[in-house]
Amino acid sequence: MAENTSENVKFLKGGPFTSHDHGHGHGNGGFSHSHDHVQSHSHDLVQSHSHGHTHDVLEGPGTYTDRDQPIYRSDWDKRAFTVGIGGPVGSGKTALVLALCQYLGDNFGICVVTNDIFTKEDWQFLVEHKALEAERLRAVETGGCPHAAIREDYSLNIAEVRDLTELFHPDIVLLESGGDNLAANFSRELADYIIYVIDVAGGDKIPRKGGPGVTQSDLLVINKTDLADAVGASLARMEQDAKCMRQDGPTVFIQAKHGLGIPEVAEFIVQTLKTQRGES
Ligand SMILES: Nc1nc2c(ncn2[C@@H]2O[C@H](COP(=O)(O)OP(=O)(O)OP(=O)(O)O)[C@@H](O)[C@H]2O)c(=O)[nH]1
Ligand SMILES: [Mg+2]
Questions:
Q1: What distance in angstroms lies between residue 235's CA and the mean position of ligand 2's atoms?
Q2: Quick one: which ligand is closest to 256's CA?
Q3: Ligand 1 in reach of 257 Cβ (< 6 A)
Q4: Which residues are within 8 A (CB) of 14 and not within 5 positions of it... i.e. 6 or more apart?
């Protein structure tokens, strides 16, 4: 395994001076981008601000059954299967990424891209814990609201996935979003499979509060079940609310830090990978 140093891992920085050629702009100070879309899309942006990106104004949280479906594609040799892992700050996204690398790493080629606002903290954590060879771990510094880099202008992340695919031909690239709020969710054009991580410590109200991550992710993960008693959270209530908010879409309870529930999460990922690659 290669030595884990900051020198042998790429660290990218987003910002207003990055410029690519693309058909639509986002009203963010000249930051436009290009990517090879399998499907074209448009953004119905109601508001435009000048703080780095624009915000979608949501009419509602959407529903699991009507969520954007995975985009059919066959360019796996250019862009590996991507798993987006989003969720509020501190819910356990990085702990889940580490656990998935450890669980899947022997049987699947894995790479990881972390997103942080102004640091490379999560990348550092994964390097220090030897989640993978350091070369397979990349950090994107988003420099703004994290959801911009996973939904509105995900060109930096797509570029990383393409580069990692060319270098390592991985089966799976795990993309960790920066910690965000309940309004954030991955673009389907970036993530083939979308996991949203919330935690018990946030209170058992979180599933019923909804938001696109809770309602429209392919898999809702509820982490830190070991803390339920400490914070007075009812897991049964969370399960019931999640079921209701997601029209019976899947929810898995885990303890990422202790490796509990990880095989179940991994199984969802692998099944979807096989289905999308036409292997099952
Ligand atoms: N008790 C408990 N703590 C956990 C569990 N999983 C993660 N943690 C802890 O929760 C804290 C936050 O975990 P992270 O994995 O950094 O969370 P994150 O969602 O990646 O955080 P950001 O990227 O900063 O948004 C860390 O101190 C973890 O050790 C768990 O299952 N149980
Ligand atoms: Mg993290």
A1: 23
A2: 1
A3: yes
A4: 140, 141, 142, 143, 144, 149, 156
Per-residue pLDDT, 256: 98
Beta strands of the chain (E only): which ranges?
11-13, 81-86, 110-116, 137-141, 172-176, 193-199, 219-223, 251-253
Average pLDDT, the chain: 82
Per-residue pLDDT of 199-231, as tens digits, reads 999 999 999 998 889 999 999 999 999 999 999
Ligand 1 geometric centre to CA of 126 (Å): 13
Q: Cα of 62 to ligand 2 centre, how many Å?
A: 25
Res. 66 pLDDT band, cuts 50 70 90: confident
Q: Is 95 in the pocket of ligand 1 (CB under 6 A)?
A: yes
**Under 8 Å between Cβ of 272 and 192:** yes
What confidence tens digit (pLDDT) does each residue in 107-118 have? Answer: 999 999 999 888
Report whether 266 contacts 237 (CB < 8 A). Answer: no
- Residue 214: strand, helix, or coil: helix
Nearest CA to ligand 1 atom 30: 224
Decide: 101 and 109 in contact? Cβ < 8 Å: no
- pTM for the model: 0.82
Ligand closest to Cα of 117 equals 1
- 3-class secondary-structure state, position 196: strand
Parallel, antiparallel, or unpaired: how do β-strands 110-116 and 219-223 relate? unpaired
By percentage, how much of the chain surpasses pLDDT 70?
Answer: 79
Nearest ligand 1 atom, CA 95: 15
Question: Is 255 touching ligand 1 by the criterion CB < 6 Å?
Answer: yes
Contact 105, 129 (CB under 8 A): no
Take atom 9 of ligand 1 and give the residue whose Cα is closest: 92
